[in-house]
Amino acid sequence: MSCNPSTIVSHLSAFSRLLLISVLFLLIPAYAKQTGIPGCADIDNLEETFNFETSSLNDLLLCFCKIKTDSSVAISCLYGSSLEDLNKAISLVADANATVDEVNRSLG
């Protein structure tokens, strides 16, 4: 007996398929929330999300994205950030199908 995923799914009952799809819909947003916005680091988890060995500090955006809910994000920009940094962060949030609902600027 092979373990081909399409064969396994075809043998599942309709209820089991519905249950599997429901579980996937619950897990995918949770995974997205854990991973954050690709390209826009969360300053609270900067050490975990930014690889200082392979990335240049010059490539680090001075605006950071913090996920508040499954679809809303707060952007915090550090003093010295540019309008280009903010625009890039907003674009990254939009690319992740999320919404910016708060923008802050830290003075240091």
From TrEMBL:
Region forming the signal peptide: 1-32
Keyword entries, A-Z: Signal
Superkingdom to which the source organism belongs: Eukaryota
The name this protein goes by in its record: Secreted protein
Organism: Toxocara canis
Lineage, uppermost ranks: Eukaryota, Metazoa, Ecdysozoa, Nematoda, Chromadorea
